[in-house]
Amino acid sequence: MSNQGNNRVPEQIQEKGVAVFRPELRENKELERFRVSVKNGNALARTKTEIALYAAVCLAILLVPVFLQDAFLLNKYARYLVFGMLAVSLSLSWGYCGILNLGQAMTFGIGSYCMAMTLKLKTIPVHTGADGLPDFMVWNNVTELPGFWTPFYSPLFGVLAGILLPAAFAALLGWFVFKGRVTGVYAAIITLAAMVVVQIVIIDQQAFTGGFNGITDLAQFDIGGFAFDAYGSSSYYLVAVCLTVTLFLALAITKSKAGLIAQAIRDQEDRVRFFGYDVALYKIFIFSVSAAIAGLAGMLYTIVMEFASPTFLGVPLSLSVVIWVAVGGRQSLLGAMLGALIVTGVQGALSESETFLDTWTLIMGLLFVLVVLFLPQGIAGAFASLAKRFERQRPAPVPKPAQHAEPIANGREIESAR
Description:
- This protein is mainly alpha-helical.
- The protein is built from 16 helices and six strands.
- The strands form three sheets. A two-stranded antiparallel sheet has the order 1-2. The protein has a two-stranded antiparallel sheet with strand order 3-4.
- The chain starts with 11 loop residues before the first strand and ends with a strand.
């Protein structure tokens, strides 16, 4: 009988009633199991390290008011934290699902206006017309509060609307874009166009939205009678706590099954579709969660700034968010947040300095070019590369000697260590 095609030798071959074993095959299996266990252990260790790093950064953020009592600086740093949350939202869609959203400011602005509408209806009468009618409506000869404004008398409705309305808008837009298999730069252009349309509508409907002036003279946000002063530590803590919760929620999503599939879609969309997953559905989910986080950031920004403006839905802000995420590292939530804090902090420091008053934009442009050239994966990517380099230099773990079987007659075996 020919032995062609029978190159694989089973681990155990019966020869005249005697069990013959191939130790090298068992060694390969043991080694493979060892490699899998080491890989899983390394992944678990990296996750624990990542969680510890996130916790340390968030703790440092929460401790800032303990050492800083300046009301102006607390307000400024709270604004920077809001931008950090906005960067996290884009990192979730762009860095973990491959959806470059050039209209991220759209959902940010929608959330901002939802909170502004609620706070405007709580403003003291001196800033409103008869029966609490907003002042800009009085100026535009509006005599009755529009129906879509009425639910915003409830602060709970305003908060829920600021989160769910951007998510619903993103889900609707994502349904047409991703079900139509629109990807890459084309999807980015569609999100940018949608943002411009929403901004134009808000500006055009001046009688109901305040137009170019936006919605100003807002009351302070309060929960159960406790007011959050925009220039006090209370508002800073509100923003910091929301940022911490958002950061860990987004991290949990990236570690979940949906998050892992989203990352696979980012890398090989066609292969994921081949395995039977509904790619469009996962994209819509990540896109909507990203929009909800941006809407929450927009509400917090209105609380801190005490007004809402159509500039919050502008192209400059959207492009700035892309730059923050690129600098920090789009495939790292923490990196994107730190990128936003670093860029906005440096930009604020340079623009307020008399020395760089006329040249700070050129300096910022030069910094962005240098980051793109020398840190294509952002700051977080650079640190990740260094960590991997140190990890490779560590000695690899050695597997324990495998247990082999010595054959005896009648098919029985005796286990002994080599």
